[in-house]
Amino acid sequence: MKRNIVIAAVTAAALIGGGTATALATTGDDDSGTTRQSDVRASGGDDADDRAGDDADDRGDDGGDDRDDAARASSAKVTAAEAVAAALREAPGTAVSAELDDEDGDDDGDRERAVWEVDVLAGDGTWHSVRIDPGTGKVLGSETDDEDDTDEVRAALKGSSVDAAEAAKAAAARGTVTSVELDEDGHYGDGRAAWEVETLSSGKGEQDWRVGLKSGEVTADRSHHSGSDRSDHSDDSDDSGSDDD
Predict the structure, then answer these.
(1) What is the reported pLDDT for 106?
(2) How many angstroms separate the CA atoms of 196 and 160, rounded?
(3) What pLDDT is recorded for position 20?
(4) Residue 110: pLDDT band by 50, 70, 90 thresholds?
(5) pLDDT, tens digit, for every residue of 23-48?
(6) Among 136-145, 147-156, 187-196, which stretch is predicted with the lowest mean pLDDT?
(7) Percent helix, percent strand, percent coil in the chain, to nearest 5
């Protein structure tokens, strides 16, 4: 009877502590003193700790990214539209995207700095990547890129009346624009091209928008959500492209 009581007590302690306990259970006063070792395991202790640690790491990573985005946006004096204009003066053509991001420091030990990176498609089919200082609007450099979607981009922009700068201005009422990019495939690849714009605002964080290539209408972008959201927001998808047909 004493042995059963001891094992029960140790089992309860193990379950509460979430770990593994080892009990030495005696056979009683009338026994010859022989002891028998009984292992008591509480499942889920280590796994629960690992899951909690992973969740904390994920939250920490997301929080760091959000803070970095907010810091870049708050320090930028040059808007997305202004960055596009500066890039086009450097490399005439059609701006296809502009993103506020970090540029790696050079080999001399300089730290990362925020820059606007603007992709421009020239009339001869050459792609240019132009870096703009978000504090002054000065061109920091320009490089020629190789892209394989030139025909798709031109087809998507054919007949459009809203360019990248105008799309950025249209979405600026929702927050600070941190990127604008042509989506030539449309919602879920449905072929309804539009401008994709990301904004950052206090209290709402990062938000995604779609701007019509002809209408300039701004609608919430659901294309990055899970499949379960697609049916819920199918009307939004239809609305975002209806004016651009």
Answers:
(1) 52
(2) 15
(3) 44
(4) low
(5) 434 444 444 444 444 443 444 455 55
(6) 187-196
(7) 40, 30, 30
Q: Could you tell me where the DSSP H helices lie in 76-133?
A: 80-90
Is residue 134 within 8 Å of residue 73, measured between CB atoms? Answer: no
Cα gap 175→207, rounded to integer Å: 9
Per-residue DSSP letter, 111: P
Residue 203 has what pLDDT? Answer: 84
- Tell me, what's the pLDDT at 227? 41
21-28 long-range contacts (CB < 8 A, ≥24 apart) are 26/2, 27/3, 28/1, 28/2, 28/3
The answer to whether residues 20 and 40 touch, using CB atoms and an 8 Å cutoff, is yes
- 52-88 burial, b at 16+ Cβ within 10 Å, e below that, comes to eeeeeeeeeeeeeeeeebbebbeebebbbbbbbbbbb
The angle, 0 to 180 degrees and rounded to 10, between the axes of the packed helices 164-171 and 80-90 is 170
> Where is pLDDT greater, at 23 or 190?
190
What is the rounded CA–CA span in Å between residue 66 and residue 61? 9
Backbone dihedral angles phi then psi of residue 184, each to the nearest 5 degrees: -75, -15
For residue 6, count CB atoms less than 10 angstroms from its CB and return exposed for 0-12, middle for 13-18, buried for 19 or more: middle
Burial 90-112 (b: 16+ CB within 10 A, else e): bbebbbbbbbbbebeeeeeeeee
Query: Which DSSP string do the residues of 162-208 spell out, in sequence order?
Result: --HHHHHHHHGGGSEEEEEEEESS-GGG-S--EEEEEEEETTTEEEE
Secondary structure letter of residue 136 according to DSSP: T
